[in-house]
Design a protein that fits this description.
Layout: H1 3-13, H2 44-48, E1 57-60, E2 68-72, E3 80-86, H3 101-109, E4 113-117, H4 130-145, E5 151-161, H5 163-176, E6 194-198, H6 204-208, H7 218-224, H8 240-243, E7 250-255, H9 264-275, E8 280-285, H10 299-312
Parallel strand pairs: 3-4, 3-5, 5-6, 6-7, 7-8
Antiparallel strand pairs: 1-2, 2-4
Length: 313
């Protein structure tokens, strides 16, 4: 792991008092987290100490231990609208899909199915192309395997937190340019109605320039395959603004007090995409850091639910 990303990961892990981030783990028996002081930002130890809701099904889309999707399924026969959920964590270990269980459960209670994906991280293959291939394959699996669970892949939005915000927007950019292989009939990957990015960093060129983000700048080179023989321009097919317009609405929800993702990242990205004709809105939420973005009781998540429900109507 790059030095700065490792420091960030260790800082986030400090004080977890036995909570794990292993794939498929839960904290059903964890002691309740202490309530934060009035006006204080939510911390990772407080957040991860909460009892963790469990998914209804786990679906495999590959052989690697991370190539799985957790399905949060609402009651009733469906067909259910779907939120594709993509976790963050600087595209690195030890973070996994279970970070998104709390907001996935909240959407399940609201009648929205959640396709909570996992993917190989940088440590599993040095980033490109594995992180990107898995992101594509996991979302494509929604159209292949989702209908048997009563899901409607034609009513889908993507929701990504932090690095997952980048991957959600990246999928939409790639999907717009997708063409099936010649003379091959295949089920198309889902077309999203919108993307909601929660504290994302979709412009990798910006994130690679000092001072970068809380993920550090060196992690971007590992993610995009910079320096690999024959790679060419590593940002051309990995950094969303370089891939062109998405053609669908995008909402960037960010915290004014986020110490991981600089506030200007959202407006900088929005300006570039609007210049290409995309509809992009930025919602900056006060008294909000990086953790509140995936806490179901927060003002940031209330804003996200509003945008998800609007897109699915």
């Amino acid at each position: 792991m790059p030095a700065r990303a490792k420091i960030v990961a260790l800082a986030l892990l400090a004080g977890l008092a036995g909570c794990t981030m292993s794939t498929g783990g839960d904290t059903e028996n964890a002691a309740p987290a202490p309530a934060p002081e009035a006006g204080a930002l939510l911390t990772w130890p407080e957040f991860l100490a909460r009892p963790r809701p469990a998914p209804d099904h786990t679906i495999r889309y590959g052989d690697h231990e991370r190539q799985v999707v957790d399905l949060f399924l609402p009651q009733g026969p469906g067909p259910h609208p779907v939120a594709v959920m993509i976790h963050g964590g600087c595209w690195s270990a030890p973070w996994d899909r279970t970070l998104m269980n709390w907001i996935s459960d909240d959407l399940r209670r609201r009648g929205i199915a959640v396709w909570n994906i996992d993917y190989r991280v940088i440590e599993d293959g040095n980033g490109w192309p594995h992180v990107f291939d898995d992101n594509w394959a996991a979302i494509h699996a929604l159209t292949i395997q989702g209908r048997e669970f009563g899901l409607d892949p034609n009513r889908a939005v993507a929701v990504g937190h932090s690095a997952g915000g980048h991957l959600a927007l990246w999928y939409a950019a790639k999907r717009r340019r997708w063409m099936p292989p010649a003379n091959v009939r295949m089920i198309p990957p889902p077309e999203l109605r919108a993307v909601v990015s929660l504290g994302g960093l979709p412009d990798l060129e910006l994130a690679a320039r000092p001072p970068g983000s809380g993920c550090g700048t060196e992690v971007i080179g590992q993610l995009v395959g910079q320096g690999r023989p024959g790679r060419g321009d590593p940002f051309a097919d990995t950094s969303v603004p370089r891939m062109g317009a998405l053609g669908i609405p995008q909402v960037l929800i960010n915290g004014n007090q986020d110490a991981i993702i600089p506030a200007h990242f959202a407006e900088d990205y929005a300006g570039k995409m609007r210049a290409m004709g995309d509809e992009v809105r930025v919602r900056m939420i006060d008294a909000t850091g990086h953790v509140e973005l995936i806490a179901p009781e927060s003002a940031a998540w209330a804003a996200a639910v509003e945008e998800i429900e609007r897109a699915l109507r």
